[in-house]
Known about the structure:
The chain is an all-alpha fold. The protein has one domain. Helices cover 70% and strands 0% of the residues. Helix 6 runs antiparallel to helix 7. The longest helix is centred in the middle third of the chain and has 25 residues. The termini are far apart. The mean pLDDT is 89.
Amino acid sequence: MLTTEILWGTPTLALLLGYLLGSILFGVLLTRIAGAGDLRSIGSGNIGATNVLRTGRKGLAAATLLLDLLKGAAAIWIAEALWPGHGVVAAAGAFFGHCYPVWLKFRGGKGVATLMGIVLALHWPSALVYAAVWLGLLAALRISSVAGMLAAVSAPASAAWFGRFDIVPLLLGLALIVLWKHRENIARLLAGTEPRIGRKNG
């Protein structure tokens, strides 16, 4: 009985750990501490690094991106240290915590940076592909949504290419959620109204 309780309890603890870490609102916290206002009332209202950039604070945007990335990786590293084999569960929790934080009535970020942190902790070669796709397209097109969505899609594709089929289902599921979170961006892309990096709205 005790063994069964431990086995059933550990995944739940890993999931909750991941969710709590993922739901830390670095974009909101950093902009508020820096006196840049409420991020939710700026630009698109999103809590991610791209919207932080619209405050004109490049340093804050870079810090937000890095911290959102690290919380995804940290959830896995900590869970594996505490409960070996449950890093994947913590990864899912961290992603959902970022995208659907209870503190903001489940209206969170779009998950691109946090997903990269997850990929980094699970399989760093795939993270290199992720970074190359994301940064390469961002530099070439200057459209954050396109770069982020295609980077997310690259995660399960590159994991499969490298033979890491054990993490493909998780990465595929999270990539689909990233696409879902970008549905308004997709509509603007189809309408030809999606803004490029450097503009104030969208």
